[in-house]
Amino acid sequence: MSNEAEDSAREQRDEPVDVRLMGRSSSTVTYQSTLHKSERHIVLKIWVNPFVPYSQIQQSYALLQTEMRTLRATNNPHILIPLHVRRTPQSFVIVSDYIPEGNLQLLIEQNHHQPLPRQRALTLIHQIGEALQAAHQQDIVHGNLTPHNILLVTNQDSATDQPDDITLSDFYLPSLQLGRARTREEDHPQLRLYMAPEQFRGTTTRLTDQYSLGCLAYQLLTGRPPFEGIAHMPLQHKHTHDLPQRPSQLNTDLPSTFDAPLLKALAKDPVERFADIDAFLTALTASEQAATIPEIATNGTKEAGETKERAATRKNKPQHAKTNRKRAKPAHDKRKHFFFFAFP
Question: What pTM value is reported for the model?
Fold first, then answer.
């Protein structure tokens, strides 16, 4: 086939052109590209395992198609739904829209690893949580939650350059495991910062996602994750045995009402966490509301107390006290009081 014929066929199929490498891992290669016909910007994520039999690839591909249909059924605006999936003899190619605004990790770095403004952080946490809850209702667990796969989507109507929404990508779907468990070497160092104790032992559930969200919430509100490090074994020990510092101790501007829900989501035992993501989000909302009530109540109580004290003073004051003071005042005091009232 001539070059001209190849170009014509590519245009008819709307194939990707101008393919550029974005990154690699032990099991994936990711490219950015543009569809020739529609000029749509896309990401191609190729899952490769040359040692898996072709029959198993076929079974996994059928499962992957089912999982993609289930993801679409969530109908949640904060979940990035792949456009389609292609199969090769030894791999899958997942095609998704390219989100140019970057990810949550970029926002964290631009903020110099400091706590985000509380309302901004809570908005992001709620959007991530709503996406996870929608997936859980379809029996899909993310199992791969890091700031890198939380993509930022800029609101075109916004008057600022700050991102307004997130979209969640890179679900670690069972079909992509190709019949094997993820090994320690395949755990990205970033992922270990957000892994629940049971996930280090190979168990991933909805409560595992809640723990990961708790780690992210902790980081956004305090400026750092609950535990820091890179190596697998030290981080596994910290997540399994160490207690995180109270968030309000790390960020003194964070009300202590946030300590309990954040630490509950980070409980070592999954059964001690919230029943689901919605319950965690509800607790965070209650924490924000409770943080404003004491201040209002304290001010009101203080004002009421001062009013009662003034009333009691007037009631108990001797009736002749004012007269006696008037008789005792020297002449210069009268001038002083006249000056005060004339020039407040």
Answer: 0.78
User: Rounded to 5 degrees, what angle do the CA atoms 309, 315, 316 make?
Assistant: 90
Give 294-302 contacts, CB < 8 A, sequence gap 24+. Answer: none
Residue where the block lists tokens 């390219």: 98
Cβ–Cβ < 8 Å for 255, 119 = no
Q: 87 - beta bridge partners?
A: 92
Answer whether 56's CB lies under 8 Å from 64's CB.
Answer: no
The SS3 call for residue 191 is helix
The closest alpha carbon to 104, from 118, 88, 91, 116, belongs to 116
Amino acid at 35: L
Pick the closest to residue 248 from 259, 264, 263 (CA basis). Answer: 259
Residue 79 and residue 131 in contact, taking contact as beta carbons nearer than 8 Å: yes
DSSP 3-state helix, strand, coil percentages of the chain (rounded to 5)? 55, 15, 35
| pLDDT per residue as tens, the chain (344 positions) | 445 444 444 445 678 888 899 888 767 888 999 988 888 899 998 887 777 787 888 888 888 888 888 988 998 999 998 888 888 877 788 899 998 888 999 999 999 999 999 999 999 999 999 999 999 999 999 999 999 999 998 755 544 455 568 999 988 777 776 555 555 545 667 899 999 999 999 899 999 999 999 999 999 999 999 999 989 999 999 999 999 999 999 999 999 999 999 999 999 999 999 999 999 999 999 999 998 876 544 454 445 555 555 555 555 544 444 444 444 444 444 433 332 333 33
Domains within the chain, CATH numbers bracketed: 15-292 (1.10.510.10), 294-342 (no CATH)
Cα–Cα distance measured from residue 173 to residue 143, given in angstroms and rounded to the nearest whole number: 8
Residues 94 and 87: their CA atoms lie apart, in Å, by 9
SS3 assignment, position 78: coil
Helices 118-137/206-222 angle, 10° precision: 170
Q: Give me the residues paired with residue 24 across strands.
A: 29
